[in-house]
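ok so I'm stuck.
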Amino acid sequence: MTSKKQLKARIRARMAKTGESYTTARDHVVGQAEARTDAGWRFAGGRHPSSAAITAILVNQSASVSEPLVFLAGGGIGAGYILWEFKHDQSRHVTLGFRNQWQYHDRWMAKTLGRLGVPYEEHRTGGNRAASDRLAAELDAGRPCVILPDRYHLGYWHLPATFDGHGGGPVVAYRRDESGVYLDDRGQAPIRIPRERLDAARARVPSYRNVLHVLGEAKLDEATLADATREGLRDCAAHLSATSDSFSLPAWRKWARLLTDTRNAKAWPKVFADGRGLADALLSVWEGAEPVGMDGGNLRELFADALDEAALLLAEPELADLAGRFREISDLWHGLAEAALPAEVPEFARVRELTAAIKESVLADGSAGGEEAAESGRLLWQARATANESLAAADTVVLFADLSARLGAIYEAETAAIARLATLTR
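replied:
not stuck anymore, here's the structure
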C-alpha cells in the first residue's frame, strides 16, 4: 500500500514538473478526493484566491454554483505586467495580472457579488482592535468573512522579511477560538492564525487596511446566473479591448518589447545588465503564469471552464468553441513559463521542487504541515540565492528574445480570441 508520504512526494513532483495546481496534481495522482470539513465548514478548494473565497462561502451556504461561473461573473480574465526593482535588497520581481481588475480587490468584489445578487457588507475599520473585534463578532454570529491579509505576516507561506507589505490574496475567515482565527485558503485543511498575527497582517497594507466583506444568503437561480454570466462576458470583452498597456492586453505587447529593447530604462537588457536578481525575476514569471503559484496562474484554463458552462447556461455553443481556444492559449502561457524557468537547469529544478513542496504542505495539511513547510521555505530561499548567483554572468540575449517571441504570440492569440468574444456578446 502506498504511504501518505509517498503520495505527497508524487504530488509535489508532479506540481514541480508540470506547474499544475495542488488540486489538479492530486487528482491525477490519487483521483478526486472527498471534500474535508472542520467544525462544519466544508473545504471547497479553489484555483484563484478571489473567486475561490466567494465560492467557498456560497458552497457553505448550500448554493449551487461553481468557481468558474463566479470568476466569470467578475469579468473573467485580465492582463497586466509590472517589473519591480527593490533597492533595499537589490531584488527584482515581476507582477503579472491575470484577473479582470486584478489591481482592485474592492471593486472586483463589489461587481462580482452585485451581479450574482449576493447581499454583502464591506467594512474598513481604521483601528486594529476595532477591526479585530468586528471580525470576531461576525464569526461568533456564524458569518464567515473574506479578508485580505499580508502574506508575509500570515507566516504560513514562509516568505522572507523582504516581502513584508507586498500584500496577498483574499482568504476566508470561518471560525475562531479564544486566541486564534481559522482560515480557508483554497486548501483541504484548517489554517489557524494567532489573533494578534492576523490583526497585524490585515492592517499592514494601507490601500486595503482591515478590509472585511461579510456575505449574506445568496439566491442563485438560473436566471440570476445567466444574467451574471452575460454581464461578465461583456465586461471581459470590453476590458481587454481597451488600449491600456498597463491593465489590458497591450500590456503583453509592451512587455514583449521591453524584453529586447536596449534603450528604455525599464527594458530587461538594461535592468539585468548587472546580473542581479535575474533568477528571482524568472521565478516570479513561472510562479505568476503557472497554477502552482500562490495566485492561481494565468487563469486561462479557469476561464475556458467558465466558457463551457456559459455555453450551456446561455445556449451559445460558440462559447464552447472559444473555450478550446483559451485552453490553447493556456498552453502558450505554460510554454512561456517553462522557457523562463526550465527544469533542465539544476538550480531551477530545485527551486521548483521547493516551491511546490510549500504549497502542497499548506493546501494539504494546513497548520498541521507548518513545520514541514517552514523547512521547505528555509531551503527555498537558500536555493533562490544560489540560482541568482549562478545566473549573474549569464548570456541573456537568446533567452530574452525567446520570451519576447512567445509573448508576442500570446498577445496576438488573446487579441484575436477577445475580438471573437466581443462579437458573440454584442
